[in-house]
Amino acid sequence: MGMGMCLPCLGGAADDVVETPDPVTADSFDYKSFFSKVGLSSKSADDIKKAFAIIDQDKSGFIEEDELKLFLQNFSASARVLTDKETKAFMKAGDTDGDGKIGADEFAALVKS
Protein backbone atom coordinates (compact mmCIF):
# COMPACT_ATOMS: atom_id res chain seq x y z
CA MET A 1 0.00 0.00 0.00
CA GLY A 2 1.44 3.33 -1.03
CA MET A 3 0.81 6.78 0.34
CA GLY A 4 -2.06 7.05 -2.10
CA MET A 5 -4.00 4.39 -0.25
CA CYS A 6 -7.46 5.07 1.00
CA LEU A 7 -8.54 4.51 4.54
CA PRO A 8 -11.47 2.26 3.58
CA CYS A 9 -8.76 -0.17 2.46
CA LEU A 10 -7.63 -0.39 6.07
CA GLY A 11 -10.94 -1.45 7.45
CA GLY A 12 -13.74 -2.54 5.19
CA ALA A 13 -16.53 -2.11 7.72
CA ALA A 14 -16.30 1.68 7.73
CA ASP A 15 -19.54 2.25 5.82
CA ASP A 16 -21.47 0.42 8.54
CA VAL A 17 -19.96 2.62 11.23
CA VAL A 18 -20.01 6.12 9.71
CA GLU A 19 -23.60 6.55 8.64
CA THR A 20 -25.42 9.66 9.78
CA PRO A 21 -26.96 8.92 13.16
CA ASP A 22 -30.53 9.68 14.04
CA PRO A 23 -31.00 12.37 16.72
CA VAL A 24 -31.14 9.72 19.44
CA THR A 25 -27.59 8.57 18.66
CA ALA A 26 -26.04 11.98 17.97
CA ASP A 27 -22.84 12.43 19.97
CA SER A 28 -22.48 8.66 19.94
CA PHE A 29 -19.07 8.37 18.25
CA ASP A 30 -16.78 6.07 20.22
CA TYR A 31 -13.26 6.10 18.82
CA LYS A 32 -12.25 2.83 20.52
CA SER A 33 -15.22 1.00 19.07
CA PHE A 34 -14.66 2.63 15.67
CA PHE A 35 -10.96 1.71 15.50
CA SER A 36 -11.85 -1.84 16.42
CA LYS A 37 -14.75 -2.17 13.95
CA VAL A 38 -12.74 -0.87 10.99
CA GLY A 39 -9.77 -3.01 11.98
CA LEU A 40 -7.36 -0.10 12.50
CA SER A 41 -6.51 -1.11 16.07
CA SER A 42 -5.11 -4.43 14.80
CA LYS A 43 -3.00 -2.86 12.04
CA SER A 44 0.77 -2.51 12.09
CA ALA A 45 2.48 0.63 13.32
CA ASP A 46 3.35 1.41 9.69
CA ASP A 47 -0.30 1.20 8.61
CA ILE A 48 -1.34 3.42 11.51
CA LYS A 49 1.26 6.00 10.42
CA LYS A 50 -0.16 5.85 6.88
CA ALA A 51 -3.65 6.43 8.26
CA PHE A 52 -2.35 9.38 10.28
CA ALA A 53 -0.78 10.88 7.15
CA ILE A 54 -4.13 10.73 5.35
CA ILE A 55 -6.09 12.25 8.24
CA ASP A 56 -3.46 15.02 8.58
CA GLN A 57 -4.96 16.87 5.60
CA ASP A 58 -2.68 19.91 5.78
CA LYS A 59 0.46 17.76 6.28
CA SER A 60 1.43 19.73 9.39
CA GLY A 61 2.48 16.60 11.27
CA PHE A 62 -0.52 16.97 13.57
CA ILE A 63 -4.25 16.32 13.48
CA GLU A 64 -5.95 19.56 14.48
CA GLU A 65 -9.54 19.97 15.61
CA ASP A 66 -10.86 20.89 12.15
CA GLU A 67 -9.30 17.75 10.67
CA LEU A 68 -10.65 15.66 13.53
CA LYS A 69 -14.18 16.96 12.91
CA LEU A 70 -13.97 15.50 9.38
CA PHE A 71 -12.32 12.30 10.64
CA LEU A 72 -15.06 9.88 9.52
CA GLN A 73 -15.04 11.27 5.98
CA ASN A 74 -11.51 9.87 5.58
CA PHE A 75 -13.09 6.43 5.83
CA SER A 76 -16.23 7.05 3.76
CA ALA A 77 -16.87 10.14 1.63
CA SER A 78 -20.56 10.17 2.55
CA ALA A 79 -19.89 10.02 6.30
CA ARG A 80 -21.14 12.63 8.71
CA VAL A 81 -18.92 15.17 10.42
CA LEU A 82 -18.34 14.66 14.11
CA THR A 83 -20.34 16.88 16.43
CA ASP A 84 -18.49 19.52 18.45
CA LYS A 85 -18.95 17.38 21.56
CA GLU A 86 -17.54 14.28 19.82
CA THR A 87 -14.64 16.23 18.35
CA LYS A 88 -13.67 17.73 21.71
CA ALA A 89 -13.90 14.34 23.46
CA PHE A 90 -11.82 12.71 20.70
CA MET A 91 -9.22 15.49 20.91
CA LYS A 92 -9.08 15.26 24.71
CA ALA A 93 -8.51 11.49 24.51
CA GLY A 94 -5.76 11.79 21.90
CA ASP A 95 -3.98 14.99 22.92
CA THR A 96 -1.91 13.62 25.79
CA ASP A 97 0.57 16.53 25.93
CA GLY A 98 -2.13 19.22 25.98
CA ASP A 99 -0.94 21.18 22.93
CA GLY A 100 -4.39 21.19 21.28
CA LYS A 101 -3.50 18.78 18.50
CA ILE A 102 -2.75 15.08 18.04
CA GLY A 103 0.72 14.07 16.90
CA ALA A 104 1.61 10.79 15.15
CA ASP A 105 2.72 9.08 18.37
CA GLU A 106 -0.38 10.27 20.20
CA PHE A 107 -2.57 8.97 17.37
CA ALA A 108 -0.84 5.58 17.41
CA ALA A 109 -1.31 5.33 21.19
CA LEU A 110 -4.98 6.31 20.84
CA VAL A 111 -5.59 3.68 18.14
CA LYS A 112 -3.97 0.99 20.26
CA SER A 113 -5.68 2.04 23.53
Largest β-sheet summary: 2 strands, antiparallel
Number of domains: 1
CATH T-level topology: Recoverin, domain 1
Poorly predicted ranges: 1-5, 20-24
Strand order within the widest sheet? 1-2
Structural class: mainly alpha
Main features:
disordered N terminus, 113 residues, two-stranded antiparallel ribbon, Recoverin, domain 1, mainly alpha, 45% helix, single chain
Provide a quick synopsis of the model.
Helices cover 45% and strands 4% of the residues.
Task: Characterise this structure.
- This protein is mainly α and 113 residues long.
- It has one domain (29-112): EF-hand (Recoverin, domain 1, Orthogonal Bundle).
- It is 45% helix and 4% strand.
- It is built from seven helices and two strands.
- The chain has helices at residues 8-11, 14-17, 31-37, 45-55, 65-69, 84-94, 104-112; strands at residues 62-63, 102-103.
- Helix 4 packs across helix 7 (104-112).
- It is globular and about 30 Å long.
List the helices and strands and how they pair.
Elements: H1 8-11, H2 14-17, H3 31-37, H4 45-55, E1 62-63, H5 65-69, H6 84-94, E2 102-103, H7 104-112
Antiparallel strand pairs: 1-2
Helix pairs in contact: 4-7
